[in-house]
Specification:
Shape: elongated
Number of domains: 4
CATH class of the largest domain: Alpha Beta
Helix content: 40-55%
Strand content: 5-15%
Radius of gyration: 26 Å
Number of strands: 16
Number of helices: 20
Largest sheet: 5 strands, parallel
Structural class: alpha/beta
C-alpha cells in the first residue's frame, strides 16, 4: 500500500500506540506516532500524514482542542477520534468539530479496518478533487462535494478520462454538467487540444447544422466564405453537446452518422471530412423516457450513453451545501476585495432549508450578491435573505424532519447512524421525540437503532 496516505497515531498510552501500530503494520499502512496533541501538531507540519487516529483524553492538549487546531491547519485532514467515554454528547461534539469518525474504547479491530479503509479512500478522492481544481481554476468552486453521490462522480471522471468513451452527463439545470465535461477533458490525453461547447437548445436547427458541420462558400444566402464547424474545430479535442434532448429527429440522425462514421460533410459540401473527436453530451431530460415516446432515437441514445454520469440536485446532497457556500464566499470575497470571511450558523441553517430549484448556480448567485452587499465580516441570515432577488421556496422546518425523511434512505449508512445518534442526544434519548425530529415513525426509528447497534 505504498500509495496510501500516512497515518498519525496519537495517544498518551504507550501500550495503545503499540497496539495500533501493529494493527496498521499488518494492513500495510505507513504511520507515525505522537504521545499528545502538541507533538501531533508538530509532526503534521511536514505534510506527510493525511489521516490522524487520535485519543480524546490526553494531557497538555486534549483531542478535541487538537482536532480544532488540526482542521485550521489543514481542513482536508481526516481525523478519527477514540474515546473511553462513549457518551452521545461526546460523539456529537467530535463530529461537530470536524472529526471524520470516532471509536469508543475498547473497539472492534474489524470496524477500525473498515473506517481506515474509508478514510484512505476519502484522501484519494480529496486529492482527485484537488487535481480537478488545478485544471479548472476559478470554476473549480462548483466541483466540490463530500457526499457519497459526488464521490461517485469524481471517481467516474477519473475512470473515464483516459479513454475515448462517449459520456452522457445527466442532471437538473444548474448542477454543473459542463464542468464535469471540462474536468474529463482536462484529465484526458486530449487536454492540449480544444474543448468546444454547443448548446443544442439555444440554436434553431437550420443554424445548428452549420454551427456543427460548417458550410461551403455559396451553400446558402449569406454564405460568402467557407466556414468550419465545431466538429472540425474540435479536431483531436472534445466536443460538448449540451441539452441533446432538444435536438430534432433530423439533427439526431446527422449526429448519429458522425458517431458511427467519424466523418462529417459541410453544408453544401460533397466531400466527407474525417474528424477525430471525443463527444460528451448532457441533458436535463430523461432520455430513456424520450426514447419510449419516440422523441429521441434509441440508436443515438445507446451511442451517447456508453457511460452515464448523473449529477444529483443540491437538495439531495445537503452535506455539500456548507462546503460549496464557503467556497463561493472565498471566491467572491477575493474577486470583489471584500473582507467577508465566513457564514454564521443561523445563515448556514437557512441555506440547508432551501430547495434550491436552480441548484448550484442559484446558490452561487445568492452568495455572490450577499458578499457584495454585506457590511460586516460575517454573512448572517439577513445578508442571505437580502441577496435573494426572487423568492426561494422556504422549508423552514428543522433539519431532520420532512426533507431528511425524503433523503434518509439515500444517504450512506454512516451518516444515517450519526444523524440518529444526534437526534437521540438532542431529545435526551426520548425515542418518540427523536423519531418526530427525524420525520419517521417510532417503530422505524427502533428498527434503525437495532440495525446500527444503538439498543
Amino acid at each position: 500500500m505504498d500509495a496510501s496516505p500516512k497515518i498519525l497515531i496519537v495517544d498518551d498510552e504507550e501500550g495503545m500506540r503499540f497496539f495500533l501500530s501493529e494493527a496498521l503494520k499488518k494492513e500495510g499502512y505507513s504511520f507515525e506516532t505522537a504521545s499528545d496533541g502538541r507533538e501531533a501538531l508538530e509532526k503534521l507540519q511536514s505534510g506527510q500524514c493525511k489521516i490522524v487516529l487520535m485519543d480524546v483524553k490526553m494531557p497538555r492538549l486534549n483531542g478535541l482542542l487538537a482536532l480544532e487546531k488540526m482542521k485550521e491547519f489543514d481542513p482536508d485532514l481526516v481525523v478519527i477520534l477514540m474515546t473511553a467515554f462513549g457518551s452521545k454528547k461526546v460523539a456529537i461534539e467530535t463530529l461537530q468539530k470536524g472529526a471524520y469518525d470516532y471509536f469508543t474504547k475498547p473497539f472492534d479491530l474489524d470496524e477500525m479496518r473498515i473506517v481506515i479503509k474509508r478514510a484512505v479512500e476519502r484522501c484519494r478522492l480529496t486529492e482527485e478533487v484537488r487535481r480537478l481544481h488545478r485544471h479548472l481554476g476559478e470554476e473549480s468552486s462548483v466541483m466540490l462535494g463530500d457526499s457519497p453521490a459526488m464521490r461517485k462522480v469524481f471517481d467516474l471522471i477519473r475512470k473515464v478520462a483516459d479513454s475515448d468513451v462517449t459520456v452522457l452527463v445527466t442532471g437538473e439545470s444548474g448542477t454543473g454538467k459542463e464542468l464535469v465535461a471540462r474536468a474529463i477533458h482536462q484529465q484526458s490525453p486530449r487536454r492540449p487540444r480544444p474543448f468546444l461547447t454547443v448548446n443544442c437548445a439555444s440554436i434553431p436547427e437550420s443554424l445548428l447544422e452549420a454551427e456543427l458541420f460548417g458550410h461551403e462558400k455559396g451553400s446558402f444566402t449569406g454564405a460568402h466564405q467557407q466556414r468550419l464547424g465545431k466538429f472540425e474545430l474540435a479536431h483531436e479535442g472534445t466536443l460538448f453537446l449540451d441539452e441533446v434532448g432538444e435536438m430534432t429527429p433530423g439533427m439526431q440522425a446527422k449526429i448519429l452518422r458522425v458517431l458511427q462514421e467519424r466523418e462529417i460533410e459541410r453544408v453544401g459540401g460533397v466531400k466527407p471530412i474525417p474528424v477525430d473527436i471525443r463527444v460528451i453530451a448532457a441533458t436535463n431530460q430523461d432520455l430513456g423516457e424520450a426514447v419510449k415516446t419516440g422523441r429521441f432515437r434509441e440508436d443515438l441514445f445507446f451511442r451517447l450513453n456508453v457511460v452515464n454520469i448523473h449529477l444529483p440536485p443540491l437538495r439531495e446532497r445537503l452535506e455539500d451545501i456548507p462546503l460549496l457556500a464557503q467556497s463561493f464566499l472565498k471566491l467572491y470575497a477575493q474577486k470583489f476585495n471584500r473582507r467577508v470571511g465566513r457564514i454564521d450558523e443561523q445563515a448556514k441553517t437557512w441555506l440547508l432549508r432551501q430547495r434550491w430549484p436552480g441548484n448550484i448556480r442559484e446558490l452561487e448567485n445568492v452568495i455572490q450578491r450577499a458578499v457584495v452587499l454585506a457590511e460586516a465580516d460575517v454573512l448572517d441570515l439577513n445578508d442571505l435573505q437580502d441577496a435573494v432577488q426572487s423568492p426561494i421556496e422556504d422549508h423552514s422546518e428543522p433539519i431532520g424532519t420532512g426533507r431528511l425523511r425524503d433523503h434518509l434512505e439515500r444517504i450512506s449508512s454512516d451518516i444515517e447512524k450519526k444523524l440518529i445518534e444526534q437526534a437521540l442526544a438532542e431529545e435526551h434519548d426520548q425515542r418518540s421525540a427523536a423519531a418526530k425530529r427525524l420525520g419517521i415513525s417510532r417503530k422505524h426509528l427502533y428498527n434503525k437503532m437495532k440495525k446500527y447497534g444503538l439498543v
